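anyone seen this seq b4? input:
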Amino acid sequence: MVRFFAESQDISATSIKLSTDDSKHIRSLRLRPDEVFIVCDGAGSDFICRLGEQSDGTYAKIIEKQKSRGEPSVICKVFIAYSKGDRLDYAVQKSVELGANEIVLFESERCVAVPKDIQKKIARLQRIALETAKQSGRGIIPRISSGGHFGAILDEAVTGSALSILFYECEDRLFIRDVLLQHFSPESWQQDNEKKQISLITGPEGGFETFEVESAKSKDIKIVSLGSRVLRSETAPVVALAALMYQTGNL
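predicted toks r here
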Protein backbone atom coordinates (compact mmCIF):
# COMPACT_ATOMS: atom_id res chain seq x y z
CA MET A 1 0.00 0.00 0.00
CA VAL A 2 1.31 3.47 -0.89
CA ARG A 3 2.62 5.36 2.14
CA PHE A 4 3.16 9.05 2.90
CA PHE A 5 4.17 11.13 5.92
CA ALA A 6 2.46 14.31 7.10
CA GLU A 7 3.19 16.99 9.69
CA SER A 8 1.01 16.93 12.83
CA GLN A 9 -0.35 20.43 12.12
CA ASP A 10 -1.70 19.18 8.77
CA ILE A 11 -3.78 16.42 10.37
CA SER A 12 -7.35 17.12 11.52
CA ALA A 13 -10.02 14.81 12.90
CA THR A 14 -11.34 13.93 9.43
CA SER A 15 -8.71 14.85 6.84
CA ILE A 16 -5.01 15.38 6.16
CA LYS A 17 -3.45 18.11 4.04
CA LEU A 18 -0.76 16.50 1.89
CA SER A 19 2.52 18.12 0.89
CA THR A 20 3.07 19.43 -2.62
CA ASP A 21 5.46 16.57 -3.43
CA ASP A 22 3.06 13.93 -2.12
CA SER A 23 0.17 15.49 -4.06
CA LYS A 24 2.23 15.27 -7.25
CA HIS A 25 3.09 11.66 -6.45
CA ILE A 26 -0.55 10.76 -5.91
CA ARG A 27 -1.53 12.33 -9.23
CA SER A 28 1.27 10.44 -10.99
CA LEU A 29 -0.02 7.18 -9.49
CA ARG A 30 -3.52 7.94 -10.84
CA LEU A 31 -5.18 6.62 -7.73
CA ARG A 32 -8.91 6.04 -8.04
CA PRO A 33 -11.30 7.57 -5.46
CA ASP A 34 -12.02 4.12 -4.00
CA GLU A 35 -8.35 3.17 -3.52
CA VAL A 36 -6.86 3.43 -0.05
CA PHE A 37 -3.40 4.56 1.01
CA ILE A 38 -1.61 5.29 4.28
CA VAL A 39 -0.55 8.61 5.73
CA CYS A 40 1.68 8.41 8.82
CA ASP A 41 2.08 11.19 11.38
CA GLY A 42 5.75 10.29 11.98
CA ALA A 43 4.99 9.54 15.62
CA GLY A 44 3.85 5.94 15.26
CA SER A 45 0.26 6.34 14.03
CA ASP A 46 -1.03 5.35 10.59
CA PHE A 47 -4.14 6.83 8.97
CA ILE A 48 -5.93 4.71 6.38
CA CYS A 49 -7.14 7.22 3.80
CA ARG A 50 -8.88 7.79 0.49
CA LEU A 51 -8.62 10.82 -1.76
CA GLY A 52 -10.48 13.90 -0.58
CA GLU A 53 -13.58 15.21 -2.32
CA GLN A 54 -11.50 17.20 -4.83
CA SER A 55 -9.64 13.98 -5.80
CA ASP A 56 -6.61 16.06 -6.81
CA GLY A 57 -4.27 14.65 -4.16
CA THR A 58 -4.34 17.83 -2.07
CA TYR A 59 -6.26 16.29 0.82
CA ALA A 60 -6.71 12.77 2.15
CA LYS A 61 -9.95 11.69 3.83
CA ILE A 62 -9.32 9.68 7.01
CA ILE A 63 -11.11 6.34 7.20
CA GLU A 64 -9.35 4.74 10.15
CA LYS A 65 -6.48 5.40 12.55
CA GLN A 66 -4.23 2.60 13.79
CA LYS A 67 -0.85 2.05 15.42
CA SER A 68 2.04 1.69 12.98
CA ARG A 69 3.09 -1.94 12.69
CA GLY A 70 6.58 -1.15 11.40
CA GLU A 71 8.13 0.01 14.68
CA PRO A 72 10.19 -2.52 16.70
CA SER A 73 9.81 -3.17 20.42
CA VAL A 74 13.31 -1.80 21.07
CA ILE A 75 14.69 1.68 20.49
CA CYS A 76 17.97 1.28 18.64
CA LYS A 77 20.37 4.18 18.25
CA VAL A 78 23.05 3.40 15.67
CA PHE A 79 26.40 5.20 15.59
CA ILE A 80 28.15 4.83 12.22
CA ALA A 81 31.61 6.15 11.33
CA TYR A 82 31.98 8.25 8.20
CA SER A 83 33.07 6.29 5.14
CA LYS A 84 33.88 7.09 1.53
CA GLY A 85 31.73 6.89 -1.57
CA ASP A 86 28.17 5.65 -1.27
CA ARG A 87 28.82 3.32 1.65
CA LEU A 88 27.01 5.61 4.07
CA ASP A 89 24.00 5.72 1.77
CA TYR A 90 23.76 1.93 1.92
CA ALA A 91 24.32 1.76 5.69
CA VAL A 92 21.66 4.39 6.40
CA GLN A 93 19.13 2.88 4.00
CA LYS A 94 19.44 -0.63 5.43
CA SER A 95 19.53 0.58 9.03
CA VAL A 96 16.23 2.39 8.51
CA GLU A 97 14.73 -0.72 6.88
CA LEU A 98 15.77 -2.86 9.84
CA GLY A 99 14.26 -0.54 12.44
CA ALA A 100 16.91 1.93 13.63
CA ASN A 101 15.31 4.71 15.65
CA GLU A 102 18.12 7.22 15.12
CA ILE A 103 21.44 7.25 13.25
CA VAL A 104 24.41 9.31 14.45
CA LEU A 105 27.43 9.75 12.19
CA PHE A 106 30.87 10.39 13.65
CA GLU A 107 34.55 10.84 12.81
CA SER A 108 37.19 8.51 14.22
CA GLU A 109 40.97 8.29 13.84
CA ARG A 110 40.97 5.92 10.89
CA CYS A 111 38.15 7.45 8.86
CA VAL A 112 39.28 7.51 5.23
CA ALA A 113 36.96 10.35 4.24
CA VAL A 114 34.86 12.93 6.09
CA PRO A 115 32.43 15.09 4.07
CA LYS A 116 33.59 18.67 3.50
CA ASP A 117 30.01 19.86 3.84
CA ILE A 118 28.59 17.71 6.62
CA GLN A 119 25.19 19.42 6.69
CA LYS A 120 24.73 18.81 2.97
CA LYS A 121 25.58 15.14 3.51
CA ILE A 122 23.16 14.91 6.45
CA ALA A 123 20.39 16.45 4.33
CA ARG A 124 20.97 13.89 1.58
CA LEU A 125 20.94 10.99 4.04
CA GLN A 126 17.78 12.35 5.70
CA ARG A 127 16.05 12.21 2.31
CA ILE A 128 17.20 8.61 1.93
CA ALA A 129 15.78 7.88 5.40
CA LEU A 130 12.43 9.42 4.42
CA GLU A 131 12.10 7.38 1.21
CA THR A 132 13.21 4.21 2.98
CA ALA A 133 10.73 4.78 5.82
CA LYS A 134 7.94 5.04 3.25
CA GLN A 135 9.05 1.89 1.41
CA SER A 136 9.56 -0.23 4.53
CA GLY A 137 6.37 0.74 6.38
CA ARG A 138 8.00 2.61 9.24
CA GLY A 139 5.96 4.64 11.70
CA ILE A 140 8.67 7.27 12.14
CA ILE A 141 11.34 8.88 9.99
CA PRO A 142 14.62 8.12 11.81
CA ARG A 143 16.67 11.22 12.49
CA ILE A 144 20.14 11.45 10.92
CA SER A 145 22.67 13.64 12.72
CA SER A 146 26.39 14.26 13.12
CA GLY A 147 27.86 13.56 16.54
CA GLY A 148 31.29 15.05 15.84
CA HIS A 149 34.43 13.15 16.82
CA PHE A 150 34.49 9.67 18.36
CA GLY A 151 35.15 10.90 21.89
CA ALA A 152 32.08 13.11 21.79
CA ILE A 153 29.64 10.34 20.92
CA LEU A 154 30.54 7.97 23.76
CA ASP A 155 28.54 9.84 26.39
CA GLU A 156 25.62 10.08 23.99
CA ALA A 157 25.81 6.33 23.37
CA VAL A 158 25.47 5.44 27.06
CA THR A 159 22.95 8.11 28.08
CA GLY A 160 19.55 6.50 28.48
CA SER A 161 20.71 3.16 27.04
CA ALA A 162 20.11 -0.17 28.73
CA LEU A 163 23.00 -1.61 26.72
CA SER A 164 25.76 0.01 24.63
CA ILE A 165 27.92 -2.06 22.28
CA LEU A 166 31.00 -1.21 20.21
CA PHE A 167 31.90 -3.70 17.50
CA TYR A 168 35.64 -4.29 17.18
CA GLU A 169 37.33 -6.52 14.62
CA CYS A 170 40.14 -7.47 17.04
CA GLU A 171 37.82 -8.76 19.76
CA ASP A 172 37.98 -12.56 19.87
CA ARG A 173 36.31 -13.54 23.14
CA LEU A 174 32.95 -11.82 23.40
CA PHE A 175 30.58 -12.31 20.45
CA ILE A 176 27.32 -10.58 19.71
CA ARG A 177 25.29 -13.75 20.30
CA ASP A 178 26.72 -14.01 23.84
CA VAL A 179 25.82 -10.43 24.73
CA LEU A 180 22.30 -10.67 23.32
CA LEU A 181 21.57 -13.98 25.01
CA GLN A 182 22.98 -12.70 28.28
CA HIS A 183 20.97 -9.51 28.42
CA PHE A 184 17.53 -10.38 27.15
CA SER A 185 15.18 -12.89 25.59
CA PRO A 186 12.50 -12.12 23.00
CA GLU A 187 9.76 -12.93 25.51
CA SER A 188 10.98 -10.39 28.06
CA TRP A 189 11.15 -7.61 25.48
CA GLN A 190 7.74 -8.30 24.02
CA GLN A 191 6.14 -8.30 27.48
CA ASP A 192 7.86 -5.08 28.59
CA ASN A 193 5.51 -2.12 28.09
CA GLU A 194 8.36 0.38 28.18
CA LYS A 195 10.74 0.27 25.26
CA LYS A 196 14.43 0.09 26.14
CA GLN A 197 17.18 1.86 24.22
CA ILE A 198 20.18 0.03 22.81
CA SER A 199 23.21 1.79 21.30
CA LEU A 200 25.30 0.14 18.58
CA ILE A 201 28.64 1.63 17.45
CA THR A 202 30.43 0.53 14.27
CA GLY A 203 33.72 1.80 12.89
CA PRO A 204 35.27 3.08 9.65
CA GLU A 205 37.06 1.21 6.87
CA GLY A 206 40.31 1.18 8.86
CA GLY A 207 38.73 -0.01 12.10
CA PHE A 208 39.11 1.51 15.56
CA GLU A 209 42.38 2.55 17.20
CA THR A 210 43.25 0.74 20.43
CA PHE A 211 42.93 3.91 22.50
CA GLU A 212 39.41 4.44 21.12
CA VAL A 213 38.41 0.96 22.25
CA GLU A 214 39.90 1.56 25.69
CA SER A 215 38.02 4.85 25.93
CA ALA A 216 34.77 3.04 25.17
CA LYS A 217 35.54 0.43 27.82
CA SER A 218 36.00 3.19 30.39
CA LYS A 219 32.38 4.22 29.70
CA ASP A 220 31.14 0.65 30.36
CA ILE A 221 30.48 0.11 26.67
CA LYS A 222 30.77 -3.57 25.79
CA ILE A 223 33.40 -4.46 23.19
CA VAL A 224 31.97 -7.19 20.96
CA SER A 225 32.89 -9.23 17.88
CA LEU A 226 30.64 -9.73 14.86
CA GLY A 227 32.37 -13.00 13.99
CA SER A 228 35.64 -14.32 12.62
CA ARG A 229 35.28 -12.48 9.31
CA VAL A 230 36.10 -8.78 8.96
CA LEU A 231 32.99 -6.99 7.71
CA ARG A 232 32.97 -3.89 5.56
CA SER A 233 32.04 -0.62 7.24
CA GLU A 234 28.62 -0.54 5.55
CA THR A 235 27.91 -4.20 6.39
CA ALA A 236 28.67 -4.11 10.12
CA PRO A 237 25.72 -1.92 11.24
CA VAL A 238 23.32 -3.98 9.11
CA VAL A 239 24.50 -7.28 10.62
CA ALA A 240 24.45 -5.88 14.16
CA LEU A 241 20.92 -4.50 13.75
CA ALA A 242 19.64 -7.71 12.20
CA ALA A 243 21.03 -9.75 15.10
CA LEU A 244 19.45 -7.39 17.65
CA MET A 245 16.07 -7.39 15.92
CA TYR A 246 16.08 -11.17 15.70
CA GLN A 247 16.94 -11.67 19.36
CA THR A 248 14.29 -9.18 20.50
CA GLY A 249 11.57 -10.85 18.44
CA ASN A 250 11.38 -8.17 15.77
CA LEU A 251 12.41 -10.42 12.87
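Residues 86 and 118 are 14 Å apart (CA to CA). Residues 3-67 form a domain with the Ribosomal Protein L25; Chain P fold (CATH 2.40.240.20). kinda curious what u guys think
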